[in-house]
Design a protein that fits this description.
Rossmann fold
């Protein structure tokens, strides 16, 4: 659904109490050059970015790209990490409101925990653009990817690598992200739906590892002590899957197919080396640029989309050569 300006959103929200997020707009993902041409030196705004954590390369890249892009645009930009602490995230956002931000870009720790801060933004007439992870209610627009589709794509590709629906058998270790996180749940649900099509496969879930490699190492060690017949690992991001791969290598366990999500270049290069099987793309840099573009559209009263899907795709041994680039932290969408 297209919207015209932030004041229109406030009026609609007052009338209906909530706002649906339903429209896919791939054209917004390609508008960076136009935005630079239109707004560089002219965007006299202060934009805050509340990042859920900086404990993963994905989130660090989001922050770095956002800061660089804001500098190019001439936007006053402030980024604060919540360090996976919901209370801190709410406090950080309130501090940014007090500092005079015109808009907030938000990557929430979970869908419900930042409701108080979003309500405070609404009272201050500050638009909230969620990125990567979404919230249940109160945001102006959402820039992300179909995380359920990412999980499904990995699951389907893995089933084929294991011999197909009728022949695949064994246990899959699923290394989980953050409890209550919409991204975690979507990547879990999409993957498990695909695996359910192969009756010989069983998914064993780990404790929540918050998308961090060190926690995934511990979780994998624990799971291997109580499970045999492991044929694959699926992590809700590549960083955790690489931690699991490290454990498998240390224990001398061979033949396990390691898969994940995000297109982390370390994982892509591991695919090239035959040490990793599958990932799906989730370029964090493009996410933040599109989020910034959408924010500027909102602030300038222009038409914008309530949901921008930045797209994804599978990387495996058949196409990995197209994506290897050691100058990048994550594989770039093509």
């Amino acid at each position: 659904m297209k919207r015209k300006g932030f004041l229109a959103i406030l009026t609609a929200m007052a009338m209906i109490g909530s706002m649906g997020v339903c429209v896919y707009a791939a054209d917004d993902a390609a508008s960076t050059e136009d935005v630079l041409a239109d707004y560089t030196g002219k965007a006299d705004y202060k934009i805050g970015f509340s990042q859920c954590t900086l404990a993963s390369p994905f989130y660090v890249t989001m922050k770095e790209v956002a800061e660089d892009y804001a500098k190019q645009l001439g936007v006053d930009f402030v980024c604060v990490s919540a360090d996976d602490d919901v209370t801190k995230q709410n406090n950080d956002i309130n501090d940014m409101i007090s500092s005079g931000i015109d808009a907030l870009i938000l990557n929430p720790i979970n869908a419900e925990g930042v409701a108080p801060a979003i309500e405070a933004c609404q009272k201050a007439d500050i638009p909230v653009i969620t990125v990567d992870r979404n919230v249940n209610d109160g945001n102006t627009a959402y820039v992300g990817r179909d995380n359920e589709e990412m999980g499904r794509l990995v699951g389907e590709a893995l089933v084929e690598e294991l011999g197909g629906k009728d022949k695949a058998e064994g246990k899959i270790l699923e290394i989980q992200g953050t409890a209550g996180d919409t991204v975690m749940m979507a990547r879990r649900d999409g993957f498990e739906a695909a695996i359910a099509e192969a009756p010989g496969l069983e998914v064993i879930q780990s404790a929540y590892c918050d998308y961090t490699r060190s926690k995934a190492v511990t979780a994998t060690q624990d799971l291997l002590q109580s499970n045999d017949g492991i044929v694959a690992v699926y992590g809700h991001n590549d960083d955790m899957s690489l931690g699991a791969a490290q454990v498998l290598e240390e224990k001398g366990i061979e033949g396990v197919k390691v898969t994940g999500v995000d297109g982390l270049m370390e994982a892509v290069m591991a695919i090239q080396d035959g040490k990793y099987s599958i990932t799906t793309m989730n370029d964090p840099g493009s996410l933040l640029k599109v989020a910034m573009n959408t924010t500027l559209k909102v602030l300038n009263g222009e038409d914008y989309d309530e949901f921008v899907d930045a797209g994804t795709g599978v990387i495996d041994s058949s196409n990995v050569a197209d994506y290897v680039d050691d100058s990048l932290a994550f594989a770039a969408m093509k």
